[in-house]
Amino acid sequence: MRREKSCGALVYRKKDDKKPELLLIKHRYGGHWSFPKGHVEAGENEVQTALREVNEETGLTIDLLDGFRECVEYYPKPNVKKQVVYFLGYAENDQVHKQDEEVSEVKWLDIDEALNAVTFKNDKNLICRAKSFLLEL
Q1: How far apart (Å, rounded) are the C-alpha atoms in residues 58 and 11?
Q2: Structural domains of the chain ordered from first start
Q3: I need a labelling partner for 120 at 20 to 30 A (CA). Which of 10, 32, 34, 56 fits?
């Protein structure tokens, strides 16, 4: 069994007293709505990978919140087990510049709309955890 590891982040912004909004990206090759993420490169830790991937795919620099680290595992193809570690990050500047090679669309949605927009159950679970985490801040 081959193992792969990626890291990424649920990126959020807060406008006035409204609900937090999450940034969703539509992956060019899978066609699914999810969050920025990518493979860990040699010499990187999980946090470095997540920050780099968010910046590469969205142009955003984010601040990660302490205490939120969620791990998802799945099998993208036979004999391949993939682990993805997600953090929760705040975007001070929300002007997105998408990476055309990997991202076909980006959109900000309030956290409840994002729950309905993501493609996979794992992502829905992540949004629920992020929403609970943000309510406790």
Answers
A1: 10
A2: 2-135 (3.90.79.10)
A3: 56
> CA-CA distance, 115 to 121, in Å (whole number)?
9
Going by C-alpha positions, the residue among 136, 122, 127, 102 that lies closest to residue 23 is: 127
Residues 93-130 pLDDT 10s: 889 999 999 999 999 999 999 999 999 999 999 999 99
Residue 39 token pair = 């493979």
13, β-bridge pairs: 21
Which pLDDT score, from 0 to 100, does residue 108 have? 96
Q: 49 near 37, Cβ under 8 Å?
A: no
Residue 92 pLDDT class (50, 70, 90 cuts): confident
d(CA 79, CA 82): 10
Q: What pLDDT is attached to residue 94? A: 85
DSSP state of 16: T
Q: Is the dihedral of CA 73, 69, 108, 50 positive or negative?
A: negative
Alpha-carbon distances, residue 137 vs 23, 67, 68, 83, 113 (angstroms): 20, 11, 12, 27, 21
